[in-house]
Write a structure and sequence with these properties.
The protein contains eight helices and 19 strands. The protein is an alpha+beta fold and 308 residues long. Strands 1, 2, 3, 4, 5, 6, 7, 8, 11, 12, 14 and 17 form a twelve-stranded mixed β-sheet that branches. Strands 9-19-18-15-16 form a five-stranded mixed β-sheet, with no helix packed on it. Strand 1 and strand 2 form a beta hairpin. Helix 1 crosses helix 3. The longest helix has 17 residues. The protein starts with a strand and ends with a strand.
């Protein structure tokens, strides 16, 4: 399944959506339509409005949602009642993330292009919640930086509480996967001596548009990943080239930091970022940057001037 949080032109109400045949169905609207004329869905589905509500239901919740969506096959009319074209909705951040933990220099060639040795252990930093943004939402250039860079990344959404889990069982704790642009103010990152401010300015963590559930991805370490600036491919790699693979990262982090449902791990960016090019290619107003990952989709954001 591909799932999203969104709102419509006529309402600011947050909705949980499921992608079905290239349209987005409001899960709660669909549940109410089914309840009125067919098999009774799980009661919580009648008013669900957030990704986190679903995530917190665990595997049973996903099964109940799958059962609901199976009713679309029986009634095209029900689906039509709840369907919105992708162009007609406004995407929200794919999840209201609890913690956003990110991994630095997790592709060998990216470490090398920045003049650093590949790390011997995962280099973990955090992006703050104010940075969270959505597909098609603007990346706002800050007034305090002149060196804004892009980083295409695979993001992992945690689905169950994970504390001291083994590498072998780590993927059992994953709800799904999506795209993130780890937007970075390079001058702040380098000048501060630590990364929090340079990685966490407002709008610096676009996430989405869809969460693809784990069952749809047979091997998360074999996905093509690209970063595309104004139509030009700047980053092109494969998640197979990660130094520390997704199961290892989950296990490593969980040994001392308990991961909770709704937490997000951004797994690092491949080579090709703008700052280390000669000459540097930095984000400017009217640029459009896309993160594209095989089987997951495309995250797109335009860059805009600072706002008052």
């Amino acid at each position: 399944m591909k799932l999203a949080q969104f709102k419509t032109e006529n309402s600011n109400q947050q909705r949980l959506g499921a992608l079905v045949d290239e349209v987005v169905c409001d899960v709660a609207e669909l549940a109410r339509a089914v309840s009125a004329s067919g098999p009774e869905p799980a009661s919580w589905l009648l008013d669900v409005s957030s990704m986190l509500e679903l995530v917190n239901r665990g595997p049973a919740g996903l099964d109940e949602l799958k059962a609901l969506l199976s009713n679309i096959q029986a009634s095209a009319g029900r689906a039509a009642m709840t369907a919105y074209s992708i162009e007609a909705i406004e995407f929200l951040p794919a999840v209201a993330a609890g913690k956003i933990l990110a991994i630095g220099r997790n592709y060998v060639d990216h470490a090398i292009e920045g003049g650093a040795e590949p790390p011997k252990a995962p280099l973990i930093f955090n992006k703050l919640p104010n940075a969270l943004s959505a597909h098609e939402a603007p990346i706002v250039l800050p007034t305090i930086s002149t060196a804004i860079d892009y980083e295409a990344e695979l993001a992992v959404l945690i689905g169950q509480r994970a504390k001291q889990v083994s590498e072998a069982e780590a993927l059992d704790y994953v709800f799904g996967y999506t795209m993130m642009n780890d937007v970075t103010a390079r001058d702040l990152q380098r000048g501060d001596g630590q990364w929090t401010r340079g990685k966490s300015l407002d709008s610096f963590a676009p996430l989405g548009p869809f969460i693809t559930t784990r069952d749809e991805i047979s091997n998360v370490q074999s996905l093509k990943i690209e970063g595309i600036l104004n139509g030009q491919v700047m980053q092109s790699s494969n998640t197979a080239r990660m130094i520390f693979k997704v199961p290892y990262l989950i296990s490593y982090i969980s040994q001392g930091i308990t991961l909770e449902p709704g937490d997000v791990i951004a797994t690092g960016t491949p080579e090709g970022v703008g700052f280390f090019r000669d000459p540097p290619v930095l984000l400017k107003a009217k640029d459009v940057f896309e993160v594209k990952i095989e089987k997951l989709g495309t995250l797109r954001n335009a860059v805009v001037e600072p706002t008052a």
